[in-house]
Amino acid sequence: MNTTVSEKNYSLDELNKETTFGGAGSEKMRDIPRIDLSDFDARKAEIADALWSASTDIGFFQLINHGIPQDMIDDAFEASEAFFSLPEEVKARFPLLSGTNAGWEYKAQVRPSTGTADQKESYQITLPRMAELWPSEAELAGFKTTMLAFERANWELGMRVLSCFALKLGFVEDFFTERHDPESPEYQSTLRLLHYLELVNAKPEDFTSFWRAGAHTDFDCLTLLHQRPGQGGLQLCPGKESSELAWTDVPPLPGVVTCNIGDMLMRWSDDKLQSTLHRVRMPKPEESRGSRYSMAFFCQANKDAIIEGPEKHYAPITAHDYLQQRIAANFAK
Ligand SMILES: O=C(O)CCC(=O)C(=O)O
Ligand SMILES: [Fe+2]
């Protein structure tokens, strides 16, 4: 069990809470709602009800018929694997710069929950900050084109889902779309490619002393996650039952996009929508010890957006200030 808990005192309540969630806990089966987005415009009211119900309860749902072509997802996974296979000295030319959510890092993310580095590397794409951070065509042909198309497809899907939440919250339909405007220099939504390291010559304690990603809630409004069949490990734990932490596997089903609410939207909804704790556990000794790849798109409102719920439960804060506090706590080196 991992009991190394950070003793930092953070200025946001959600971060202080996060320092208490590092242990293994128990496991429990729960249903994760599956929501069909087909015929979206005609079925929008019904879809909005289903999204609202899932998000005010478990905070996670899996979308089917979501409109991102499977070929595009497969191409993006291939490009991601090719990126992480580049020599270390090449990847090191695209370093994650502090506070930017852009660039490559290797075992640099230390979660407040565990106090240990996640067993992963990642490359983050935040469009206005990529000038020096794309590999060249000679280094990785087609990578930038593939990722730009994939980023935009995820943004479109994210905005469709957020438009349903806007209606439910009593905002105009494109309220969140306007505040995630990709044409603005203030844009800060992020596509993150993730590579969880394979276990080599694993010692018994390696299965229990580390996390592929320590328990956390996301900082953003909405996360769209692409997992690969056969590469599981994601687990969630709904906050409403927090007396005992019981974790549920989120299966990496083919063709689905797994979504969860983040803290920014929880705050923006006056805590109606639930930002749910999740983590990626290490493989069990009987499971595959190979690499795990996933891709997450974080819908993070533009820096200049003001987060204030319809009922004004919290003081207004800009999305820039909100995110900076969260990034600082996770990459505090
Ligand atoms: O890789 C996964 O399955 C989850 C990743 C995640 O939770 C994150 O990057 O915030
Ligand atoms: Fe996450």
Automatic annotation (TrEMBL):
Q: Report domain Fe2OG dioxygenase positions.
A: 186-301
According to the UniProt entry, its GO molecular function terms are: 2-oxoglutarate oxygenase/decarboxylase (ethylene-forming) activity; metal ion binding
Keyword field contains Mitochondrion: no
Broad enzyme group: oxidoreductase
**One GO process term, biological-process aspect:** ethylene biosynthetic process
Query: What reaction does this enzyme carry out catalytically?
Result: 2-oxoglutarate + O2 + 2 H(+) = ethene + 3 CO2 + H2O; L-arginine + 2-oxoglutarate + O2 = guanidine + L-glutamate 5-semialdehyde + succinate + CO2
Cite the EC number. 1.13.12.19, 1.14.20.7
Q: Which UniProt keywords apply?
A: Ethylene biosynthesis, Iron, Metal-binding, Oxidoreductase
Q: Do you know which InterPro entries this protein is assigned to?
A: DIOX_N, IPNS-like_FE2OG_OXY, IPNS-like_sf, Iron_ascorbate_oxido_reductase, Oxoglu/Fe-dep_dioxygenase_dom
Q: Which cofactors is this protein said to need?
A: Fe(2+)
Task: Respond yes or no to whether keyword Transferase is given for this record.
Answer: no
Q: In which pathway does it act?
A: Alkene biosynthesis; ethylene biosynthesis via 2-oxoglutarate
Superkingdom assignment: Bacteria
Q: Known Pfam families for this protein?
A: 2OG-FeII_Oxy, DIOX_N
Q: Which family does it belong to?
A: Belongs to the iron/ascorbate-dependent oxidoreductase family.
Instruction: Supply the name of the protein.
Output: 2-oxoglutarate-dependent ethylene/succinate-forming enzyme
